[in-house]
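I would like you to sit down with the pair of lines that follows and say whether tokens and residues agree.
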Amino acid sequence: MIDERELAINPIVQDSVRHNAQTLSNIRALTASLFGVGAGILGLESYPGFAFYLLGTFVVSSLIYLLRVAPESQSTGSKDGANLYFYRPMMDLWVGDSVGNMMGFVLTWTLFYGLVRA
């Protein structure tokens, strides 16, 4: 956890943290729907479809970390750049809304599966 001295040196701006969390949530919701479209068009059923979603969310989280967080941590010289952008970096960046966005995934998955297979 962040101690008082660290907060005095690098204060956490709640509006920025909230904006970053909202942006990440929007990206996850959009990609969950796109993964549902992909799984439906590919005709995936049951466990392979959910594995497709989990693999896709891991790839998206990795890309966000590699393209956004890692370059900033190298330029600022900090060990963990995710702490600069998120209140709980592990939960927000890697797990986030994965379970909540699964409903949108299943919705678009079944829609496009039905459209392609019917």
About this structure: The chain has a mean pLDDT of 82. The chain is about 80% helix and 0% strand. Residues 54-118 form one domain. The CA atoms of residues 57 and 116 lie 24 Å apart.
